[in-house]
Amino acid sequence: MATSGGGDAGKATISKKDVLAEAEAKLAALEKPLKLQISGRDCKHDSLSVIEWITFEIAPVKVNYCVTLSKSTLEEKTANLDLDQNDRSIVQLMELVFNQVAVMNPQEHAVFEGGKVFMSHPWIFGFHEKDCPDVGNGARLYPGTQKSVRFIEGPGGRGYNNPALIVDAKKSAFHEEIPLIEKAKLILNDNMQDKLSRIALERLNTGMRGLFFFTKHMGHECDHQIAGIEVHTAEDTKFEHNGKIISVVDYFYDKYGIELRYPHAPLVKVRERGRTNNYPMELGWLRPMQRVNISQQSPDQLQRTTRSCAVPPGERQDNIAKGARALKIFGSDDNDFITNAGLYIYKNPLQVPGRVLPPPKLRYREDTVGVRDGKWRTPRGHLLIPAECDVWAVYGLIANQDEKIVNRLLISFAEMFYKEAGVRGIKLPHPAEIAVRLDEDQLGDTLKRAAQHKCKYCLIVTADSIKTAHKRIKLWEREFEMVTQDVKLSNVQKIVNDRRVVTMENILLKANLKLGGLNYELELNGMFANENVKNWIRPGRLFLGIGVSHAPPSRHGDGDKSTPSVIGTVTTVSDVVNNVFPKFAEYHDNKFPRDLIIYRSGLSEGSFSTVITHEIPLLRGALAQLGAKNVKIVFIVAQKEHNVRLMLDRIDRARKPTDQNIPPGVVVDTELTHPSFKEFYLNSHITLQGSARTPRYTVLVDDLDLEMDELEGMTYVLTYDHQIVNLPTSLPTPLYVANRYAERGRNTYTAHLISGSGSSDSGASIDYGRLAHQLSYNYTKLSNIRVNA
């Protein structure tokens, strides 16, 4: 502060620096947070004027937090095998730095969780209208980027540790910035002039609940969030105003001079300031850049979105570059945030060496076939172990189809199925019953009666338009302990009318597995010159898949609190050895396995420490109690939900997506991998559309000290053991099947709740132990066959 004489005597000049220093000193001396209140009427923004008081709470930062980036820090705090010693904040700091351009430019970017950023004006960054297609129901796809930081070996290879910025292109559906009434018209395909049915109201509630919108009938914009769609309309909703009862229609005309054009449209329910208000839908406009969540998507919209998001590698490379430039992370020369943090991004992506593993052969009863380009054909003749079934039936579930025509179709299909089953060695009599049912409840009664008459297998042909029956059919399968197979009516029509041989073959291969048969086995001899290949899948080695199906996001983005995470093994994780090992011994001269190879999904890298410090010791303890403490454990985590994309260094964009992608068998195990753990990327599957998503395998425990060739080789050959479709799967079969069982468990649980039999199994009162016993297959006569094939 300074004073001056003359006419300005007595005036003080205070610099900003002095003011900030004084404020900082006062804040540091605060014993508790300082609260300041201002009236909304004093704010310049009209939308804030309706708020009576706005409270600010100011508190000093008590700890001077500092993250130091240096070569020694990176080596000691990011690649330690003792995961508790690693400092996650180093990665978080880098991710914050790389996100600053998006955060500081909200008019151009919308920032979401998991490193996702989407462009609100993508054409500014080189995208075109075709990149942002309309996907229906007032929603449009917008391009964006997903980025993360991970420490890898880098170009130096083993023993080195480098931070890598991993960038991938993303697309997501967003609600368009349109009037609410227009959104409702698109969702329902209705002009909104008449009162809606109960079903239409439910659809509208599902499609619009949780969305933010604004109104401006008060002379300025006011923001609201939709809590639900009311049954009542502006015409039939009345309330007291100035001593008389008036309708919502009259209120808006009398007070605002607005004549509502959709008096029979439902009102929008909003909760604000402790009360519930209802607004006419035609007065609201949606706010921009609101993502369409899963529950808001119709089946048609989901199909369009999936198809539009399937971008081939050549186009994906362009989209990655455009997204990186938009965030100024395609190189870092013009990004002050990165430069000021002392970081630097190389513009060229990392190029890593890879190799292609040879596939196994598949041995059937009478022939052994080879694999070419990731595909093979099932030879004619008997399957390796054909199943047997004494009593079976065929039922149709139709919607609007002609019952007599469908019944004749089922008779023809059943005869073709019976004959082809005989060719494959499957022993079946003619079906005990062929019938058509008109609704799901009628079908449930029929299945119950069939089970009472000792029926072992029901083949159910369902009209394509029926979307809800499959989960109930699988619940009935569990309740009646009778194998079911659900086939779409359109596929049966193709088999009967067009003689689709491959479609019938797939249905039969699945049926044989469901009935306890085995279609083929793996033949490893000749894969490599190395004789050790035959020991990859050897007697005394047990492969176990553990898959988890987590509760899906709710309508508001949080998890469904009443739906548990489902673990897809033959048992729960804690009881795994007590259930699996006796079954293994039963078929192996009462001997336990020597090696236990576990493939685990559903884990993030942040969970690795928990696995190593908790799950593995518990597993070893259970083995010791069982008398199998000498069993060697190999624990491998498989991850598909990462944003690393492996692409060919040269891509011919004129070719179809399958040819642009990396082929089956490509493995990468250097430079791109974890600096401490054994790790590899293995692309085992054919990518028919879009860009390959290659699973990453991290070995957390390896008592056998396996060579990388064996880890990769055994994982790859196991992807050929799915037994149904003649293609390798994206994950080894034990894990792939476990994931499907976990998914089945969730669907069965959902059907159990909807059926009413689960009314006591909701919320905090759920008895998961009883549910596991009631709904899992482990305690039924179906426990030893693969019913989820």
Automatic annotation (TrEMBL):
<dbReference type="Pfam" id="PF02171">
    <property type="entry name" value="Piwi"/>
</dbReference>
<feature type="domain" description="Piwi">
    <location>
        <begin position="593"/>
        <end position="750"/>
    </location>
</feature>
<dbReference type="Pfam" id="PF16488">
    <property type="entry name" value="ArgoL2"/>
</dbReference>
<dbReference type="InterPro" id="IPR012337">
    <property type="entry name" value="RNaseH-like_sf"/>
</dbReference>
<feature type="domain" description="PAZ">
    <location>
        <begin position="183"/>
        <end position="288"/>
    </location>
</feature>
<comment type="similarity">
    <text>Belongs to the argonaute family.</text>
</comment>
<dbReference type="InterPro" id="IPR032472">
    <property type="entry name" value="ArgoL2"/>
</dbReference>
<dbReference type="Pfam" id="PF02170">
    <property type="entry name" value="PAZ"/>
</dbReference>
<dbReference type="InterPro" id="IPR003165">
    <property type="entry name" value="Piwi"/>
</dbReference>
<protein>
    <submittedName>
        <fullName>Piwi domain-containing protein</fullName>
    </submittedName>
</protein>
<dbReference type="InterPro" id="IPR036085">
    <property type="entry name" value="PAZ_dom_sf"/>
</dbReference>
<dbReference type="GO" id="GO:0003723">
    <property type="term" value="F:RNA binding"/>
</dbReference>
<dbReference type="InterPro" id="IPR036397">
    <property type="entry name" value="RNaseH_sf"/>
</dbReference>
<dbReference type="InterPro" id="IPR003100">
    <property type="entry name" value="PAZ_dom"/>
</dbReference>
